[in-house]
């Protein structure tokens, strides 16, 4: 789904700080959405914590940086970090090139898979949220 | 004949003194990560000579060359002719700005510091849960990187000062704005005035900072001279802590990275080592240390303007950590911590800390 110039697939769920979440078996995959990667510009660093790290809903667990911008990555659910995209260590620009594919960031095993339902999901909700953020960041 | 540019008026003789020996190339971090001879000090001096001779003009085509410099001063340290390249680069950047040729990241940095109180244009610093602007013996000045990028080391140094029962206060600090001088602009006196007034209002007899850049700016820039004139001593945190007995030790192998702003620019090499030797019997030096230390790549605005190259420079530095088998890399600069941490690969298992952060952790573990 295109919202202005941003590609926001409507089969994904979204964390409010513009990270997408996709269910994959008993894991979730997450990454930065198109709106965020466009706003940030060229990504130069992605923090890749060690696997096994506890992820807490709404708590910061990693950082992403472009030249002068620092993004904090917040837990979309409670769970455990089980994999990171190691390609991003030497090629963080994959997020800009392919944010929903090769630029994926983390895989998390949720304590309760039902928590994903609390994220922003569904075309109407996603559109409303993105339009509001477009307006907010245009200021 | 009157010089067309200020850099020529001030530094013509120095530029002509460059014997083109190339000693600078061997130590230039920008050359090390790009392998482009035009980017090292010799290349820059050759270009400036051409400008002085009227063969080329300062213009946008020279931005990449003249703005890609961490001002680490390794070249100056190793120059047999004594050419003070960092000062020349800073001056020519001012000339570039005056003619309207500036790297957009640096133009942006100046714009940000005309409107905001920190270099990141952030609204709120981390809340360090400390009282601010109270009467105290010392002011602790965190700096932008600690306040907005590396809050963990910044919080740790505050915790350490608390453990040591130091009478200090934070203030509603604003950017010292010293970096503007490095990238072609001037210190924002509106910001420096705010810092001075807030420091003096506390009645403190000293300002302690863990940011070597703020330390340098407060110590050396005329805009902050009033602090010294009113008896306020400026101290880097390693100067302040060098004689403390922390009562803790580590058995880990530890090495130390000299921040350029603290080492080559301020001559502070031994205070951090005195502290580290007291807590780490297995302290080892990297291949390049003291005045020969490699730059982490973050200085001179390069982290913001050329982040990929900046991280590449930090990776070169971290190879030296691997060479000595250190488990812990200590430094005392939030920018160095930030850039080195960004550059560290997952396979590299050593930890990177500010010395104060590491000591605080040891003391915490011992409790």
TL;DR of this structure?
Chain A has 4 helices and 12 strands, in the order βββββαβββββααββα. With 139 residues, chain A is α+β, with helices and mostly antiparallel strands. A 7-stranded antiparallel beta sheet of chain A has the order 7-10-11-5-4-3-12. In chain A, strands 6-8-9 form a 3-stranded antiparallel beta sheet. Chain A has a two-stranded antiparallel sheet with strand order 1-2.
Summary keywords:
heterodimer, A: 139 residues, 3-stranded antiparallel beta sheet, B: 367 residues, alpha/beta, Fumarate Reductase Iron-sulfur Protein, Chain B, domain 2, Rossmann fold, 3 domains, 4-stranded parallel beta sheet, 20 helices, globular
Q: What does this protein structure show overall?
A:
The complex is a heterodimer of chains A (139) and B (367). Chain A is an alpha+beta fold and 139 residues long. Helices cover 22% and strands 36% of the residues of chain A. Chain A has one domain: OB fold (Dihydrolipoamide Acetyltransferase, E2P) (Beta Barrel), CATH 2.40.50. In chain A, strand 1 and strand 2 form a beta hairpin. The longest helix of chain A is centred in the last third of the chain and has 16 residues. In chain A, 37% of the residues are buried. Chain B folds into three domains: 96 residues, Fumarate Reductase Iron-sulfur Protein, Chain B, domain 2, CATH 1.10.1060.10; 104 residues, 3-Layer(aba) Sandwich (Rossmann fold), CATH 3.40.50; 113 residues, Rossmann fold (3-Layer(aba) Sandwich). Chain B is an alpha/beta fold. In chain B, the strands form two sheets. Chain B has a four-stranded parallel β-sheet. Chain B has a four-stranded parallel β-sheet with strand order 6-5-7-8, sandwiched between helices. In chain B, helix 1 crosses helix 4, helix 1 packs antiparallel against helix 7 and helix 10 packs across helix 20. The model of chain B has no long low-confidence stretch (mean pLDDT 95). Chain B contains 20 helices and eight strands. The interface between A and B is medium-sized, with 13 and 16 residues.
């Amino acid at each position: 789904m295109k919202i202005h110039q941003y590609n926001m697939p409507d089969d994904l769920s979204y964390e409010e700080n513009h990270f997408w979440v996709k269910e994959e078996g008993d894991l979730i995959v997450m990454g930065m959405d198109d709106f965020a990667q466009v706003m940030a510009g060229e990504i130069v660093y992605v923090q890749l914590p060690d696997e096994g790290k506890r992820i807490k809903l709404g708590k910061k667990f990693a950082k992403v940086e472009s030249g002068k911008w620092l993004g904090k990555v917040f837990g979309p659910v409670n769970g455990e970090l089980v994999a990171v995209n190691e390609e991003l260590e030497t090629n963080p620009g994959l997020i800009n090139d392919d944010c929903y594919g090769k630029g994926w960031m983390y895989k998390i095993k949720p304590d309760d898979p039902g928590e994903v339902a609390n994220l922003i999901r569904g075309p109407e909700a996603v559109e409303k949220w993105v339009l509001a953020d477009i307006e907010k960041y245009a200021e | 004949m009157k010089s067309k540019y200020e850099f020529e008026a001030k530094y013509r003789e120095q530029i002509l003194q460059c014997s083109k020996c190339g000693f600078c190339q061997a130590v230039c971090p920008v050359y090390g990560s790009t392998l482009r001879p035009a980017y090292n000090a010799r290349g820059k001096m050759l270009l400036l000579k051409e400008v002085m001779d009227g063969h080329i003009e300062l213009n946008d085509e020279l931005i990449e060359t003249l703005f890609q410099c961490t001002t680490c001063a390794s070249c100056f340290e190793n120059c047999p002719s004594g050419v003070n390249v960092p000062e020349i680069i800073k001056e020519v950047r001012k000339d570039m700005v005056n003619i309207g040729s500036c790297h957009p990241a640096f133009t942006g940095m100046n714009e940000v510091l005309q409107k905001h109180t920190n270099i990141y244009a952030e609204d709120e610093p981390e809340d360090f849960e400390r009282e601010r602007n109270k009467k105290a013996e010392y002011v602790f000045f965190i700096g932008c990187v600690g306040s907005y990028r590396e809050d963990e080391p910044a919080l740790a140094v505050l915790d350490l000062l608390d453990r040591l029962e130091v009478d200090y206060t934070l203030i509603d600090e604003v950017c010292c704005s010293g970096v503007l001088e490095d990238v072609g602009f001037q210190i924002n006196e509106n910001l420096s005035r705010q810092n001075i007034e807030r420091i003096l209002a506390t009645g403190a007899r000293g300002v302690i900072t863990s940011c070597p850049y703020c330390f340098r700016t407060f110590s050396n820039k005329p805009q902050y001279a009033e602090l010294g004139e009113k008896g306020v001593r400026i101290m880097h945190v390693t100067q302040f802590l060098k004689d403390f007995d922390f009562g803790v030790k580590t058995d880990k192998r530890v090495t130390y990275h000299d921040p350029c702003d603290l080492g080559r620019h301020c001559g502070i090499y031994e205070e951090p080592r005195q502290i580290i030797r007291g807590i780490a019997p297995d302290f080892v030096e990297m291949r390049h240390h003291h005045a020969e230390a490699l730059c982490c790549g973050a200085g001179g605005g390069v982290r913001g303007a050329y982040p990929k190259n900046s991280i590449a420079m930090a990776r070169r530095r971290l190879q030296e950590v691997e060479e000595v088998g250190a488990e812990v890399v200590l430094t005392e600069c939030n920018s160095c911590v930030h850039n080195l941490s960004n550059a560290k690969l997952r396979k590299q298992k050593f930890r990177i800390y500010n010395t104060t952060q590491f000591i605080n952790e040891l003391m915490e573990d011992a409790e």
